Task: inverse folding
């Protein structure tokens, strides 16, 4: 499905058509479609480059299965400072705390904003039912409203283990970047 156009309020719509049977947020898309749709300025291209670098780092660290929700000012019709993401992943490794502590630039929101222009949060979907539902519900409720006026809005969903899509996104970003030098 193509990424929906902004509403008159400058956000992605929370749903298309009938709210019960129509397409609903989060809208599943591919990384190259995110670049194609949102690579409209130098600032946005820099954020997209950071996001793709962040995705690559996660893959190197073993976070390959799962998906990301994309939101924040990046998916609004305004000039963003970063991109907010929730990374849903499965990582049952006993070394997970060590990996996180040794790579705070990837996992810590403050460090990651500086390094990648990404504000990341993580949900391990291998945890038992109720805690998983509570975490998912928290992020869905937070991300589905604009902070300043509580306007309902949509977000995007991108699978994580998509190296070919990410390569296509990087190529597209390189061609867009030359436009905004």
Result:
């Amino acid at each position: 499905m193509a990424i929906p156009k902004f509403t008159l309020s400058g956000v992605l719509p929370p749903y298309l058509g009938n709210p019960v049977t129509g397409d609903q947020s989060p809208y599943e898309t591919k990384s190259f479609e995110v670049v194609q749709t949102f690579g409209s300025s130098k600032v946005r291209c820099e954020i997209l480059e950071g996001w793709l670098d962040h995705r690559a780092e996660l893959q190197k660290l073993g976070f390959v299965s799962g998906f990301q929700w994309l939101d924040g000012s990046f998916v609004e019709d305004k000039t963003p400072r970063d991109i907010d993401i929730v990374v849903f992943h499965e990582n049952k490794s006993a070394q997970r705390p060590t990996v996180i502590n040794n790579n705070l630039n990837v996992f810590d929101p403050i460090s990651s904003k500086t390094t990648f222009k990404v504000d990341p949060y993580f949900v391990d979907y291998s945890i038992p039912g109720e805690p998983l539902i509570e975490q998912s519900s928290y992020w869905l409720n937070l991300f589905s409203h604009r902070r300043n006026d509580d306007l309902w809005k949509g977000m995007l969903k991108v699978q994580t283990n998509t190296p070919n899509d990410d390569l296509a996104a990087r190529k597209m970003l390189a061609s867009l970047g030359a436009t905004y030098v």
Summary: Helices lie at 31-38, 42-60, 96-101, 104-107, 109-116, 129-143, 163-179. The chain has one domain: 25-179. The mean pLDDT is 90.
